[in-house]
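Notes from the 1:1 (GR / supervisor)

We went over the backlog. Supervisor wanted to see one worked example end to end before approving the batch request, so GR pasted a single chain during the call. The sequence is below; no edits were made to it. Supervisor asked that the structure be written out right there so they could see what the output format looks like.
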Amino acid sequence: MASYVAARDAALKALTEDNLAKVVQGPMGEMPLDQVIGMFIVPDVLIHSWDLAQCAGNPVSLDEDLVSETYERLLPLDAMIRETGVFGPKVDPPADADLQTKLMCFTGRRV
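Structure output shown during the call:
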């Protein structure tokens, strides 16, 4: 726990407005750090939070706004994320699936 707290505190200290505005190399070329975090880091942590909960056998309800934003951002990238192997094949969600379930199925998770 102490290691996590130290790493979290160091990251938060480094995420100043100036640093977030710096242009860095991201997976899709150069872009401001805040865009890299929003486009890649947040979705990665969100989806893997679900993965970890599933592995532990714990049901999880992810933040609805983050789920919605992540799903909407990933939809137009469907072909690209399949070609690069970022995600496996989509899984058909149940007909009555909520948005979290749709996101997980879109990213190749079985629910």
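Supervisor's comment: The longest helix spans residues 33-56.
Batch request approved.
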